[in-house]
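Weekend entry, working from home. Most of the wet-lab plans are on hold until the incubator is repaired, so I used the time to fold the two sequences that have been sitting in the queue since the last round of cloning. Logging both here for the record. First:
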Amino acid sequence: MSDNQNLLAEQRRALILDEVRRRGGVRVNELTRRLKVSDMTVRRDLDALARQGVVEKVHGGAVPVADATTHEPGFEAKSALELSAKEDIARAAARMVARGSAIALAGGTTAFALAHQLVDIPDLTVVTNSVRVAEVFHSAQRSVAASGPAARPGAATVVLTGGVRTPSDTLVGPVADAAIRSLHFDVLFLGVHGISVTAGLSTPNLAEAETNRHFVRSARRVVVLADHTKWGTVGLSSFAALEDVDALVTDAGLPVAVRAEIAERLPELVVAHPSPDGADVRRPMD
């Protein structure tokens, strides 16, 4: 754990959460020494993490909250987790997107990070059921318009599916499903709640699972975006098998043994690294 006392609050909380999960619990006095911040700062951080539902405060410290297959954290809670890993994954995934292609971005915080990487790729058609993802592109378009006629042309065309809003700010249900069924994408970028050999891709939200099934069926190529903490997690409803996935983009925190297991089952595994150009690509023939 870093001893940088100038960490931003969300970075510090992400480090604390990682330590809680890795060790099964931490004490306040240990965190104050390691982070070199005050007792009060650590307690505020633990309060914030407890409100997000990712840790449980106990006397003198905190322990992880046991994952439930039906528990669906909100967008804000998930956005504070594995920040650097999501940025690494987003940069690696963006290199898979060609100018002028039609892509789908399903909901989730990793897809949200990817959207920020795609705003400068010209002539994209983006279909999404994420309110947050759509806002990224709309904000970029407003910025271009405000820059005047000399601004770069070719802004993305964004289609928001409509539907019922989930805690993750994704739109699901019959309206979203009908919109997705009528379309065809070159590439689907899909964040997941959990991924495993036995359960495949899963989510705690039944309606979101059905919407994701339609996304997968409508895509020529399925790319899953999942940081290392998603491996082995199983949600209430599975919506695709590993065999339905063409590529997995993950971060360097994924254990080497698991990488080998995944590489045996998927056509492509991309392990993203912190440097802007850093990524290892593994295929079964490598």
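Second, folded right after the first finished:
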Amino acid sequence: MGTPAPAEPISPRSPRVAAARRLARRNFRTKERRFLAEGPQAVREAVAHRGATGATLIELFATVEAAERYAEIVTAAREAGARVHYASDEVLAEVSQTVTPQGLVGVCHFLDSPFEDILAARPKLVAVLAHVRDPGNAGTVLRCADAAGADAVVLTDASVDLYNPKSVRASVGSLFHLPVAVGVPVEQAVEGLRAAGVRILAADGAGEDDLDAELDAGTMGGPSAWVFGNEAWGLPEETRALADAVVRVPIHGKAESLNLATAAAVCLYASARAQRAPGGCRSVTPS
């Protein structure tokens, strides 16, 4: 596949390169309400995504080699109204947050959703990240939620920045697939979801309730929100107290525990299967 129509060449000293480079810092991301998406998968999803105000992708930096290899992405980005820049390896190294850039870096508008909009959509399966501090884990849980068919993800005000470059990379494009609310106090998240008819399940290795027992009892077929805690110390007692049940994933072998992302995948898929089983609830009657 040949090189797409000429893009604007860009200098390493360009103000646009400097502006993109600053988005590695949270305060600049928050001020500009923009973030970086790196690699073909993330950029492809960014091109396809449209927010309430229009296209999500604003600019695309692409090496000549990447523009040739991913010509369909570059062409789609231009057709969607994004400004496309040919960039040298030096420019990509300036903008990218990876050791080995993949040749495509997009500048995107923030795309988080108001928590009220998530509640109004009457969600059936939600992942709530409370006190999750590792950006890679946050992005991976978001990816798991997407794969399990969750309706939304909520990051509390005590959790990592959704737009941290490591979070964006770890989501592998799932960031663009489902609504995500950010900065919601955990009490507000729980109260809002419960009022919307969602059962609150806190995932905790020391939980009194066993996931297998919950499945056997048929209690997981209705709308559910899983609350996941910090990687090192789990959920604080005050957060566990907010839940309708504190559930542990059973360890049948000799492993000491499961890491956060693995436990989240097990819990979310358990709910997804129960909701899709005969008698499971895949709809919510509006109140």
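Plan for Monday: verify the second prediction. The longest strand covers residues 57-62.
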